[in-house]
Write a structure and sequence with these properties.
This protein has a four-stranded mixed beta sheet. Strand 2 and strand 3 form a beta hairpin. Helix content is about 35%, strand content about 25%. The protein has one domain: RelE-like (YaeB-like fold), CATH 3.30.2310. By secondary structure, it is of the alpha+beta class.
Amino acid sequence: MTLQVDRSLWHEIFAIARRYDDDRAGLGDDFVEAVDRSLQTIALSPQTWPLWPGIKQATPPIQRFVMARFPYAIGYQVVGEAVVVVAVAHAKRRPGYWR
């Protein structure tokens, strides 16, 4: 499957990484690498992860991949042969705040 990640979402990912770097040098790079690995994992088997709980579902539905090391989840939709990433959201916030 092909991955589609909007440029504005990448800007948000790098903004989060800069905040992590403010806490500890190099942690932002770790975050970006973890996002990249997560996206590759999703692309290999997008039907593996469940629907995002606590949000009103769209068509196609939004699925959620929870990152292991960082408190973030990746929301995505499977559209034909593409995985469209719609959010990289902090897991401790209200579900769907990013919509």
